[in-house]
Amino acid sequence: MHATHLLLEEPIRMASILEPSKPNFFPAMTKIVGTLGPKSRSVEVISSCLKAGMSVARFDFSWGDTDYHQETLENLRAAVKSTKKLCAVMLDTVGPELQVVNKSEKSISLEADAFVTLTPDQDQEATSKLLPINFRGLPKSVKPGATIFIGQYLFTGSETTSVWLEVADIKGDDVVCIIKNSATLAGSLFTLHVSQIRIELPTLTEADKQVISTWGVRNNIDFLSLSYIRHAEDVRHAREYLSKLGDLNQTQIFAKIENIEGLNHFDEILEEADGIILSRGNLGIDLPPEKVFLFQKAALYKCNMAGKPAVVTRVVDSMTDNLRPTRAEATDVANAVLDGSDAILLGAETLRGLYPVETISTVGRICAEAEKVFNQDLYFKKTVKYVGEPMTHLESIASSAVRAAIKVKASIIIVFTSSGRAARLIAKYRPTMPVLSVVIPRLKTNQLKWSFSGAFEARQSLIVRGLFPMLADPRHPAESTSSTNESVLKVALDHGKVSGLVKSHDRVVVCQKVGDASVVKIIELED
């Protein structure tokens, strides 16, 4: 496998494992995406989430209306202001998601070997014998013997809160199923997943477009998480739609790979998307259990080599109700980091979990420990070999900056950038030290008014492993004279000192443009 053997070559002293970890200003280089919801939408809780290490807030429109999410977002803004910690906003679309509708919200008990009917008549009340669903085309999509899975909110795999069905018969618009395990469904919303079946619904639905064109435009979303991606055309269609919505032409599109169809077209989807989310809940149902790890390693390797952020989901499900993860979950988080993940996405754990702040903190600590034993040397050589020769000008500068920083044991890499591309390329080589991305705003106009770009680019680096943004003074362009660059560098270094990233006599690698030339320089800090 491409992504194996990423541990340090020298053996670890067993006694050192018991030594307490040193606290850092940044909890981990790996980023954490937190889903905000009922248990994590107050200013106080969001502030604690930001301090614990959350750098991207996800808004899941599978439930809740725009007013509810707007109120949460206003609280996020207040929390960002009070904590002085940047946070990006991700809008997660519903897409062609099939749902069981339980308007009464009463618990539904399903007994193994009994029959239950799935009907598109949503006016019916959900019972142990009849489950209304939001899709009329199910009888045409399935055949007797097909497997259907129903779970609450997100698939947990827990047999007490989710149920496996086998299609027994099709009667007109209804599908009759045999219940394979006893379970109790509680709540108003259950997701329905038909294994390895194509559902004839658009990836970007009219309801999704409505949310994006209103809530998304109003709030200048940084990321659009596109659910149930099946083809590269889905990404192109979404990008074309965003291009007509003012500033949303800058919004990055993250493709959620959730089914076999998306997996089969992974390479072309990766080429079109700005990043990838491995939605392991749905994929874990479509794939045999023994193949899940294989897909994760292969997909993360491809994302790493392409220099595009990769996000892994569903890592600490048990922390929805418990203060500590299971041993398997703790190992899973570490392996996601060692496999090359840029960020960990927390769903139910922060949305409705009892311990949102503790979950973020725990995942951050596990990530930080895994990063210490990540074999950067092997990864660097592998990436350089994959890129090949001749390298592009920017790729050569980025890899040289990382190599220099490691050789001189620099505390930090500072990169001046306008678009964020140079910073992302440096992060692609996974330096062992943080990369401070100094985003220089650019003046732009729509013929009616002047405005500065830069805020989007700064927030969008909050999902990239090892990249930490800082907005510079717009009076200092990225390709300026040495004197103005020195003043911006001083501000960046002062920020680094306050953050505890650098101290006297530390070495710092700086990557910047001077005129038409790109320069990598090493400086040593004085007292």
UniProtKB/TrEMBL annotation:
Residues 30-360 form the Pyruvate kinase barrel domain. Its cofactor is K(+). Keywords: ATP-binding, Glycolysis, Kinase, Magnesium, Metal-binding, Nucleotide-binding, Pyruvate, Transferase. It catalyses: pyruvate + ATP = phosphoenolpyruvate + ADP + H(+). InterPro entries: Pyr_Knase (IPR001697), Pyrv/PenolPyrv_kinase-like_dom (IPR015813), Pyrv_kinase-like_dom_sf (IPR040442), Pyrv_Knase-like_insert_dom_sf (IPR011037), Pyrv_Knase_brl (IPR015793), Pyrv_Knase_C (IPR015795), Pyrv_Knase_C_sf (IPR036918), Pyrv_Knase_insert_dom_sf (IPR015806). It comes from the Eukaryota. One of its GO terms (molecular function) is ATP binding. Its EC number is 2.7.1.40. Residues 395-515 form the Pyruvate kinase C-terminal domain. It holds the Pfam family PK. Pathway: Carbohydrate degradation; glycolysis; pyruvate from D-glyceraldehyde 3-phosphate: step 5/5. It is an enzyme of class 2 (transferase). Belongs to the pyruvate kinase family. This is Pyruvate kinase. It comes from Aristolochia fimbriata (White veined hardy Dutchman's pipe vine).
